[in-house]
Design brief:
heterodimer, A: about 190 residues, mainly alpha, Arc Repressor Mutant, subunit A, 2 domains, about 0% strand, B: about 140 residues, disordered N terminus
Chain lengths: ~190, ~140
């Protein structure tokens, strides 16, 4: 594997916008290698399936590629690239699951949210996390797993900042009040 | 309910760790997916013209090498031809057709006693012709 590209996302995006064929492809590869794991993690979150997650990964970067000329207008980053990739990966994952369900003859269930998958060995913490509403768990995951700021989460979810704060606050409150894990907050 | 101030929201490390585990991404990376994405990118960007800088870079090395060889030939040639040589019969510092004529005159004047054979004259003449054709632009 080639060494990691030290250029910022903004610089790489600028090269993808106006660079020559060779430089643009190299810059795009650097973006792909830098954000592939994040996109795959998000896709896996919403599909719970290896093949569907890989399909969503490919679909997400195709979407990003089409943002650049000649087909696209060009991309200007006003926030971290993850805030653009997150909804793209989420939508690609949900679409992949829908297609798979249709192919299998199953109907569309509620797919616009995180599937609640109980871990094989349910522990109190896992049970409390799974018990959170999908919207609250999504914000909690974006904040503490993906390390996005509240403002970035708002952009990624396309909701007001106040909504993000509210969801996070309620998620933490719910966990804090859960008798199974309450002592973890007040050791 | 909406908090009015942005208070630092923290999660106990044990819960954060379990959340990450719950969100675990298995080792599902696939080189075929990498290849497909990157090949699509190369095809997509291939429509763009190659940069002039890239074209210059492609020609720069051979062009530089040719210039270096030419320069070396120009610099070295006088040294080679100014080196005292048995072929420089007339002592002009150059080996050229005049040396062949000088050799022929010496042969004519001295005969066999001069030690110069016809074969020697012919051999020098051939080499002069060869040298001249190499010097020609």
């Amino acid at each position: 594997m080639s060494p990691a590209d030290r250029r910022s996302d903004e610089e790489l995006v600028a090269v993808c916008n106006v660079g020559d064929a060779y430089e643009a492809a190299r810059a795009f590869e650097a973006l792909y290698r830098r954000h592939r794991d994040f996109v795959l993690r998000v896709a896996r979150r919403f599909t719970r399936d290896r093949e569907l997650a890989l399909d969503a990964l490919q679909e997400t970067f195709t979407y990003l590629l089409n943002k650049f000329p000649p087909a696209g207008e060009g991309l200007t980053l006003s926030a971290r690239l993850q805030t653009l990739l997150y909804p793209a990966a989420k939508n690609a994952a949900i679409t992949a699951v829908r297609k798979a369900r249709r192919a299998a003859g199953a109907g569309d269930a509620e797919l616009d949210e995180l599937p609640a998958e109980a871990p094989p060995e349910t522990e109190p913490i896992d049970a409390a996390l799974v018990a959170l509403s999908p919207e609250r768990r999504e914000v909690l995951t974006l904040r503490f797993v993906d390390d996005l700021s509240l403002a970035e989460i708002a952009v990624a979810l396309d909701v007001p900042l106040g909504t993000v704060k509210s969801r996070l606050h309620l998620a933490l409150k719910e966990l804090r009040e859960d008798s199974r894990i309450k002592d973890l907050f007040d050791p | 309910m909406e908090p009015t101030t942005e208070q630092p929201e923290t999660l106990p490390p044990a819960i954060a760790s379990r959340l990450r585990r719950l969100d675990r991404a298995e080792a599902i990376l696939d080189p075929r997916t990498d290849g497909a994405v990157l090949e699509a990118a190369r095809s997509y960007f291939a429509a763009r013209p190659a940069a002039a800088r890239a074209r210059r870079a492609r020609w720069a090395v051979p062009l530089g090498a040719a210039a270096a060889v030419l320069l070396a030939a120009v610099l070295v040639r006088p040294i080679v031809f100014h080196t005292p040589s048995a072929d420089d019969v007339d002592g002009s510092g150059r080996v050229d057709v005049l040396d062949v004529l000088a050799l022929a005159r010496m042969r004519a004047a001295g005969g066999d006693a001069s030690g110069i054979t016809d074969a020697r004259i012919e051999e020098l003449a051939y080499r002069i012709v060869a040298l001249d054709s190499r010097r020609a632009p």
